[in-house]
């Protein structure tokens, strides 16, 4: 069901129960890998569990589960029957970690947890950094609030989801406001109102904050909202129709008009479903498409017969992996945090379908059934999911082809030995040196890697005296000094193949000097500066480390791509600077005093009026402030006067 009070992984696994190690060179060696596995095999039980394969550095190469650990691991010693991919993995294996479980279902759940934690190079990976949004109908207030929610589901109330995107949630929340007039404001805002806000004026809230609706009447609206989200929209529609008819007969035409508008909103929602899911109830629908070695999976989220959005997924590391195995691995990782519905519809039978259903049901606390629809509404819905999966995959392949061509042109343009896999772009943002910060965005063949973006709060004195150049110097020193500490061998994929710097020769030379001081001389860096007309004509000037400068034709596709990278770092830097500036506006001098919480800070400000008055107050005056003990007064006094 869509309502969830909480969902999380079980805590019954001991992940370090036994470790077996065979040390050796980090050079791939098939015989050494087989020897390491044979050494582990001699001590393995014939029980279900999970195994992790490690390379010479201890990094996890692969996580697998097995009904019988001894039998499953023994297969890796028969290298002639294995794929080239698995042979490469075994050649890098130098040690293993074994964890036993009570049954195979528990092993499947633990496997998904460990894959998410370690992101192994040889496992199928669901690359999706964002958590799915839910709608939360709070349960800890006399007048419950309806709101969008991401993350852990700790707050009391009813959770409805998952939704495919924030847009799907926002559309549903707008419909709920029009239909049921529930409040969306925070509890603090609710307490301080003495007159209705704008949402009441535009008929999207019943204004319980000022008593325009009583508790019982509001609870009735909440009950209707629960029915709607549970798929009982017909019941809600009939109830509104009866109420509108009664209001009209009593000549309460204002109320009748309000109910009419709510009915119109409900009818619009029912008619705006892009996917016909009537009669399906609660279900997730998955269809897989494969072309040219790339796999795409289309997901539809149906709750109460309503479409709550759809999303395309493109798992990584799927070469030489059977499609059924990809789908099982995808589903176990997908439901690692998202609660499954009682019905999961698939476009194919899975060999481990019963095991997967058992594992998901064990975690969720109710029976989860996996099925392949054969006829009726469910079959039509599956056919639609298949079409969407194929179309999404074709778009992905077309985009990948274009992206690959652009990266080849970038490599030719900047004399790189091969198309870059990781591009880092840097920019600064400040207002006359205040709230200064640096920003880094990352792009690769698949597009922007937003989970790897970074911002740098500028701290050094040189930044204040040298403006953009000093800020860039500080950003590069911090970024690459840390890289040398964390990845000196440059083999973890976090070293850039190309660095773009928003700025001209001064910024580029500053970054070059920092890297030379650190002993780094082989990173390709390019300065991107505005042209003679300050970039209004799209003719950016590219500055190379060897002193060359050039411009590209205004209609060159590679120029558009580089401009897109530059615009993204602009957007990220300006947004981060705006957030920092907003926090600084609301900051108080008392924030610096250790041990002073919000309540005491408020008491001091209410008593003295300003932070400056607190700073200049005598010890005796501080002791007189209400709610401030002698110890706290001494602490505040010592903080300011010691300075």
TrEMBL record:
Alphabetized InterPro entries for the sequence: GIY-YIG_endonuc (IPR000305), GIY-YIG_endonuc_sf (IPR035901), GIY-YIG_UvrC_Cho (IPR047296), Hlx-hairpin-Hlx_DNA-bd_motif (IPR003583), RuvA_2-like (IPR010994), UVR_dom (IPR001943), UVR_dom_sf (IPR036876), UvrABC_protein_C (IPR050066)
Keywords: Cytoplasm, DNA damage, DNA excision, DNA repair, Excision nuclease, SOS response
Residues annotated as domain GIY-YIG: 46-124
Residues in UvrC family homology region profile domain copies: 285-515
UniProt key word Lyase: no
Alphabetized CDD domains for the sequence: GIY-YIG_UvrC_Cho (cd10434)
Record bears the keyword Cytoplasm: yes
Source domain of life: Bacteria
Domain UVR residue range list: 234-269
Pfam families xref list: GIY-YIG (PF01541), HHH_5 (PF14520), UVR (PF02151), UvrC_RNaseH (PF22920), UvrC_RNaseH_dom (PF08459)
Major place of residence: cytoplasm
Subcellular localization, as worded in the UniProt entry: Cytoplasm
Annotated family: Belongs to the UvrC family.
General function of this protein: The UvrABC repair system catalyzes the recognition and processing of DNA lesions. UvrC both incises the 5' and 3' sides of the lesion. The N-terminal half is responsible for the 3' incision and the C-terminal half is responsible for the 5' incision.
Quaternary state and interactors: Interacts with UvrB in an incision complex.
UniProt protein name: UvrABC system protein C
Organism ancestry: Bacteria, Pseudomonadati, Pseudomonadota, Alphaproteobacteria, Sphingomonadales
